[in-house]
Design brief:
Elements lengths: L1 H5 L12 H36 L5 H5 L12 H32 L3 H12 L5 H10 L1
Helix pairs in contact: 2-6
């Protein structure tokens, strides 16, 4: 996958890049794949460990009440609601901003060079580090 990106041909002939370049590209691909798999295994282990230790202690009272020091009650309802408020506020800001930027870039932007650089940065997995960790395991 990574090698095909680097081994593009120019007018039917192979690039003039040295053989070491393609070997380095293959080495980087296997290096990134192994680190992506290691990260996925670590995240899976931590998820199983935390859920295994925490699920037995979950109760409806914990999830649906507010904490109170007077009645010695523990609850996380305000924390859950504040998380939802933050997610809704973030979506309320980023969705219109992202849609507006996409409309501007596709319809009104005159500098095609800047638009092509932005499209490359967004679409190319080498520039998006988080994609490498999650999608290299499945390929």
């Amino acid at each position: 996958m990574l090698l095909s990106t680097f081994s593009s041909s120019v007018e039917g002939r192979r690039d003039a890049r040295p053989k070491a370049f393609f070997q380095a590209a293959q080495l980087y691909g296997s290096y990134a794949d192994s680190h992506g798999a290691g990260t996925a295994v670590l995240v899976l282990f931590l998820l199983v460990y935390v859920l295994g230790k925490g699920i037995p202690h979950l109760s409806w009272e914990l999830l649906s009440t507010r904490p109170s020091y007077l009645t010695e009650r523990i609850g996380i309802l305000p924390d859950i609601l504040n998380t939802l408020y933050i997610v809704v506020a973030a979506l309320g800001v980023t969705i219109p901003l992202g849609v507006g930027a996409a409309i501007y870039l596709t319809e009104y932007a005159e500098n095609r060079r800047v638009v092509s650089v932005i499209e490359l940065a967004v679409s190319h997995p080498l520039y998006t580090a988080s994609w490498e960790c999650f999608f290299s395991v499945s390929s």
